[in-house]
Amino acid sequence: MAKNEIPTLSDLFRERFFIDDPETAYLDGNSLGRLPLATRDILNQVIQEQWGRELIRSWNQHWLPLTLRIREKIAKLIGAETDEVLVGDSTSVNLFKLAQACLDTFAPGSKVLSDSTNFPSDLYILQGLCARTSGRVVLNQFDLSHCSTEEIENSLVQQMTQSTKLVVLSHVHYQSGYLFSMERLNSRAREIGAKVIWDVSHSVGALPIDVRKSDCDMLVGCCYKYLNGGPGAPAFLYLRRELQSQLRNPIQGWFGAADPFAFSDIYQPQHGIEQFAVGTPCVLSMAAIEPGVDLVLEAGVAQIRTRSLELTDRFIEGLESIPNVFGYSLVTPRGKDHRGSHVSVRHEHAWQITQSLIHDFKVIPDYREPSMIRFGITPLYTNETDIERAVTALRRAVGERTYENYSREKRGVT
Ligand SMILES: Cc1ncc(COP(=O)(O)O)c(C=O)c1O
To answer: What are the residue ranges spanned by the domains of the chain?
Structure first.
């Protein structure tokens, strides 16, 4: 950083992450965030002191307060109250619980609306739930893939008819990075008496979410992307207070029961959000979430968003400087109001190019069907050098045909 320059977020926060090779441009924080240094220390302490030494006594002293603290922090990130947020299970399981709870209240002929290119796990959950209603509730997987950026929301609004009772969408689309307007779609849902579950996996920690301002009913979201909570970190759900007495968790586990340690043989749900808990919290993974969330809170989501837009702009400009004959096209909307924090690029040889970026140029994005390379911008550690490396690597992988050294066959996690 030059003297007198205002430090960027990565100037301030990058060194608080474990980075063993500064030459690697890690642009996959939208899939798995980097390891915060504090997480290593906290996990060591939880393992050695709390589990190793204090054993079962740690539940009261450390682990029950830990789950509450993380709920408070995630609630702060999304503008909710602590008693509207629960941390645990996976995003998929949380979607199952909330969507089934809604379906249980629907009359025959009700419809669930989602987008046919929504994250597959979300679609699978909805397909499974609707299939079990024997036709009482039908899923409308509306195809948005032919809509222009300008048409997407209008087309969805038109699909939201009187029989639509539940809408399930991702706030930021996992492929294109399209950012939906929560306000607009929630407001339309309200007009027709539908509820909305937003999957905020690709937006929480990357851009501001305010459940009150946006009038949100329900959210599910993931902690291992922009919250840097570690592989398979527990997810969270938000359920607005007014709905908590109307919906019942379909998975009746002891942690959602009125008094788990009464060991009653008849299930009685707890009041409020607590009934959406199921089993014992995954303490080690839960402990790993806190430092990542703390870093996001310390930096401020508004600042993260400003910087993310600067860096995504820079990446898009770099991409557009590559001659058209190289075959790249931008998938992500150019407009800032419709863009999350990753940029997707389409290319006929996207899989092979991704391999070349990783192995020849030390640039780590990920690959998504069909023919897309995603570049995730995480402003706490992504900087201009990473962006420039990525743009140069994209140019060279095709210009020097390095991608041709890689098989077309797709294998493993990407
Ligand atoms: C948008 C979205 N929803 C849901 C999931 C699945 O999350 P989980 O594995 O926690 O169920 C993912 C995973 O990447 C995702 O990107």
So the answer is: 9-30+300-405, 44-297
